[in-house]
C-alpha cells in the first residue's frame, strides 16, 4: 500500500491549514497513495499551547472534521490529522487524531495520552489527557494502523500495546518541539519504536519554526525509507504487511518476551532487602 506523509506549517488560520491539507491530499491521491497522514495540531497550531486552543476546539462532528471527511471523499483517500477537540471541561480541550476513510466515514479517533509537560512547557494546562489508555488501532485495506501523538514516542509501552493490538504501521503525528538534540531524538525514537516492534513508523511532523520537520518513514528493520527536510511537503511511500510479517518472523520478539504477554502483565519486581549503595561521585 502507498501512504503519504503530509508535512505542514500549520498556524492559527484554520481555513488556510485545511486548504494546505486539501492540496497535499490531492497530490497524495494523484500519486497513488491510499492514506495521507498529517501532523499533530494540523488544524490549529502555535509555538506554545495556550488558552486559544480550547477556545477554538470543536466536537468531532464540527466544521473541521466535516471538512476532513469531505477531503477524503473528494480525493478518494483516507485522511489522518490532528485536531483540537472540545472536551466538555472549562479551559481545556483534547489533542486528538482523527482518521476518515475515502467514503468520509470516521475510522478512528485517538486522544493524546501523554501530554508534553516537559522542556519548560505545560500542555496539560490547556489540554486534557485522554480518559482512556487503551491503544487505538484501525484496519484499512488490509493494514493495521496504530495512532500515537508526539510525546507518546517517548513511552515505548504504548507502541508495544499498539503492536499487540494489531498495528503494522504506527502513525506518529507530531509537532516535535525544537531544542538541544531534539532532531536526533526524533529520528532515534521513530527508529527505535520500529525496531522494537517490527512495524513501520510514519513520523509526520510540523515544519520549522514551530517544530523540527524531517517527517520520516522507518521500516520494520529501522531503516529510513524517506525523510523530508524542513519545508512543507508531501512524500508518498510504500508499506507492506508482508514485510512486517517477514521481519517479525526473523526477530520474533512478540513471541519470545518474558516480561508479560501483554502490557501490564508484568511479574513482581525482585528487590534486595538492602540494595548496595555506592558513592555517586565514585568512578564506575
Shape: globular
The average pLDDT value, as a whole number, equals 93
Task: Spell out the helices and strands N to C.
Answer: EHEHHEEEEEHEHEEEEHH
Give the C-alpha Rg: 19 Å
Q: Helix amount, in percent? A: 25-40%
Write down how many β-strands occur, each being a DSSP E stretch of 2 or more residues. 12
Major sheet size, sense and barrel closure: 6 strands, mixed
Walk me through this protein's architecture.
With 284 residues, the protein is α/β, with parallel strands linked by helices. It has one domain (2-251): Nitrilase/N-carbamoyl-D-aminoacid amidohydrolase (4-Layer Sandwich). The protein contains 7 helices and 12 strands. The chain has helices at 14-30, 52-56, 63-75, 156-164, 182-197, 241-250, 253-256, and strands spanning 2-7, 35-37, 78-89, 92-100, 106-111, 137-140, 143-149, 169-174, 200-205, 216-218, 224-227, 233-238. Strands 5-4-3-2-1-12 form a 6-stranded mixed beta sheet. Strands 6-7-8-9-10-11 form a 6-stranded mixed beta sheet, with helices on one face. Strand 10 and strand 11 form a beta hairpin.
